[in-house]
Amino acid sequence: MSVSVGTPVRVLQMDPPGHHRTPRFVRGKEGVVIGLAGRMPDAERLAYGGRGPDQPVWRVRFRQTTLWPDYAGDPRDTVVLDLYEHWLEPRR
Amino acid sequence: MQRIHDVGGLPAGPVDRSPHDYAPWEKKVDAIMRLMIGANLFTLDEMRRTIEELGPGAYEELSYYQRWIQAAANLALEKGLVTPSELGQAIETAKARHAEAASCP
Amino acid sequence: MTHAHDGHEHEHGHDGHGHGGHAHPHPRQPDIEDAPLTWHMALTEAMAELIVQKGLCTPADIHRTLEKIDAASPAAGSRLVARAWLDPDFRARLLQDVNAAAGELGIDAGGIPIRAVADTPDRHNVIVCTLCSCYPRFLLGGSPDWYKSKAYRARVVREPRAVLAEFGLHLPDGMQIEVHDSTAELRYLVVPVRPSGTEGWSEDQLAAIVTRDCLIGTALPVVA
Questions:
Q1: What residues of chain C, 144 to 163, have a C-beta less than 8 Å from chain A?
Q2: pLDDT tens-digit map of B44-98
Q3: Which residues of A touch C157 (CB under 8 A)?
Q4: What is the pLDDT of residues A28-56, one digit of tens each?
Q5: Among C146, C148, C114, residue whose Cα is nearest residue C129
Q6: Which domains does chain C have, with CATH numbers?
Q7: CATH number of A8-90
Q8: B77 contacts chain A (CB < 8 A)
């Protein structure tokens, strides 16, 4: 697993119970890493009183047309989310 | 897995842009939260999780700060910072104080 | 953390509400006292009371925090943008690190990192938090209700143009939109393009046209 700026990624398609910070609308979708948001404590542990090591959080850009097949705006329109690395897999 | 707070892309009506001045009690909720997080007694993610756990009804029936104070109380209970009967007594005290203040000329 | 609860009468004077019989030790607050006390309002009072009683914070902490909440306003964000329009070096520093750049102007941007996203002539930025209500409140003050509403959060990531049009912002064809969803511990602030017709303006004049909504991306600065 190696993610860096410019890496094309896919967000894992999974639906766990509990608190996490990956919205439904990007799960299973493909985007590109545009920057490092920072190394942050894992929200999934913090939510239950834990801590654990800091995790890389990447800024991932998605084309609107990949998120919504019926997207009506400019095909170049995008959405950027800050996603924990453990929700991302590189795609080829 | 239903995640009621996860609304990105869901169908919804027009955005209601009516202005709203925060009521004093709403600011107090905010202050309580900030202090608890600032003192490392709560994390923001514990607060988010506790709000999410209020369930779908809370989103439909409660206002924003009603959800926050309810979640803050639940989290304080969960962490053993307060007990239900302490909260119950303090609520009765607040009601009595309000009734007394309202009856003063 | 354990704090013994004495279970006895305790001081109520910390927030100006006393049990002083008819002495009425606090200034009358008609807005509060004449309104019915809802259960959630009583719960809020109870929580404030208990956290003080248990030594988790002091009445002064609560007072100071309320003052801070009242003091925060979009003026801080507007000033950062106005300065960035006037000073290219400051702009570069703002885009690099908002919290540090704010510090240069004596503005406390808080402990959560804020990222400035700069509009260009062909790309417009808009911010949202689809999962909750993350907002750069240290620089913008309390968020408007609509920012926290399901309608805004649900729709602006899927039909940003329609939502912006409801706000009266009609972006020209050829203008690309980038929506920033604050899903982690990063907050966003939009730096709009300086409008033409503002040549020679002072920082104060410029700051006055950078409204809260300009900093969220749901409006553009307007030159009257």
A1: 157-161
A2: 999 999 999 998 888 889 999 999 999 999 999 999 999 999 999 999 999 999 9
A3: 25, 67, 79
A4: 999 999 999 999 999 999 999 999 899 99
A5: C148
A6: 35-71 (no CATH), 75-216 (3.90.330.10)
A7: 2.30.30.50
A8: no
